[in-house]
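User: I'm writing a short report section on ligand binding and want a predicted complex to refer to. Could you take this sequence and adenosine monophosphate and write out the structure as tokens? A short remark afterwards would be nice.
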Amino acid sequence: MKESKRFHKVFNFSAILSIAILAAHVGAAQKRYDYARPLMGSVFNLSFYAPSDSLAQVASDSVFARINYLNGILSDYLDGSEVNRLSASAGQGQWVYVSDVLYNVLAQSQYFSAKTSGAFDCTMGPVVQLWRRATRRGYFPEKQQIKWARKAVGYRLVKIDHQQKRVQLKQKNMRLDFGAIGKGYAADQALEVLRHYHILSAFLDAGGDLAIGNAPPQQTGWRVEVSNDKQANTAPQTLILKNCGVATSGHTYRYLEHHGQRYSHIADPRTGVGLRTHVRTTVIASNGTAADALATAFSVLGVKKGQKMWQKMPQIGVWLIETNGQKNQHWKSPNFDLLFSGNIQ
Ligand code: AMP
Ligand code: MG
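Assistant: Sure. The structure tokens for the complex follow:
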């Protein structure tokens, strides 16, 4: 499957226009532009510095067109999305050719699954669907249902032919879900689109998944507020960051309550059950995709296993908050505060 022709037309036209606009504005002073759009089920906040209103308009339109396009490929909420069509082929012994975007997101998902011992797993679709339905209808999933869903989960059941960009889903009823990586990827792509317009001082918050480019002019970085957590009694913290990704997982209204126990929309691939102790995880990594996938993975791992996992990837920053009844635990990787100056590579 190839990217749609219509998109290329729009994109190429925008690119030509932007070159013309750019030529007219070389050397102009930079002004800040801010936009907010509902996309991918969240509000996306985009900020950047550009030399003119006209360039800012074309560039921001291109960013939002790109994100809409990505949504049509990656969303499991859209019936006709490419990912849902791929999922429909599960267990049929079929190789399916995929677009560059789907290939890239799937390949990166597999990379983060291997890196996190399967704590992040984009094949969690059947389990996620089960918990989503249960949350909506207010019942607790039965053991048998969880067992059945888990049978169709496992990143090793995804085969990728890297040469030909084809994918095979080995097990019947498999369903891919990029909910834990898609917004981070979209945020990175937004900065990539802006780079085509030579806009480098940029920041996109995709509803908690951030991609951050160069610092604003005459500043050391973008200010990012990590809010306080009342339950765990942590203070708010302001980070000053550039050229990295930041993701926060878990602080959400989406959970199932059963016998006074909350079950998160993030589930443990080993048990198929929504997390019970998790409150919030913030990860700072080299880009938005990595931060998004790893924030979900560290949520699953929790404080104890998370500390061990961090030893294998000490270049990232992690801040984890967990609660167990009245007992709260929180852990920050020792480099977290040092990363404020913001230049992690
Ligand atoms: P995030 O907010 O980035 O942590 O993503 C949470 C979303 O990812 C959920 O709403 C599910 O759609 C999906 N998900 C749940 N558990 C996992 C998991 N262990 N690995 C990957 N994706 C998951
Ligand atoms: Mg995530």
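A remark for your report: The helical segments are 5-25, 53-74, 82-87, 100-115, 125-137, 143-151, 182-196, 288-312. Confidence is low (pLDDT under 50) at residues 1-15.
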